[in-house]
Design a protein that fits this description.
By secondary structure, the chain is an alpha+beta fold. Helices cover about 20% and strands about 30% of the residues. Strands 2-1-4-3 form a 4-stranded antiparallel β-sheet. Strand 1 and strand 2 form a beta hairpin.
């Protein structure tokens, strides 16, 4: 009975890993007050993502993205970064976190 309770608690904590996944705070330091967002469809996007199983185990076999945001910007051909944001995609057993840069 003790083994079953312990196993249940361990599995519950592992499955909740995505819910308690802690990320670094990221602040946009680029001034976007003078940006013309009417041409947002013309922006290029560069992303670097990490994929975690159970919220804390890195999964190297996920979709390959550049290791750093600088590499992603260089590969996408962005000459001027306009906006940077961070997106999260949480599921029960895995989480995906991306840093995205937009520009032209």
């Amino acid at each position: 009975m003790i083994k079953q309770i312990t196993l249940f608690i361990l599995l519950s904590v592992c499955l909740c890993g995505c819910g308690i996944y802690v990320t670094n705070n990221y602040n946009n330091t680029i001034d976007i007050t003078h940006t013309d967002f009417s041409k947002i469809k013309d922006f290029k996007k560069a992303s670097t993502c990490s994929f975690l199983v159970l919220g804390f185990i890195p999964w190297p076999w996920a979709d390959k993205t550049p290791d750093t945001l600088f590499e992603a910007i260089e590969q996408s051909g962005i000459k001027q970064v306009v906006f940077i944001d961070k997106t999260f995609d949480y599921h029960i057993t895995h989480a995906r976190s991306c840093v995205n840069a937009y520009g032209h």
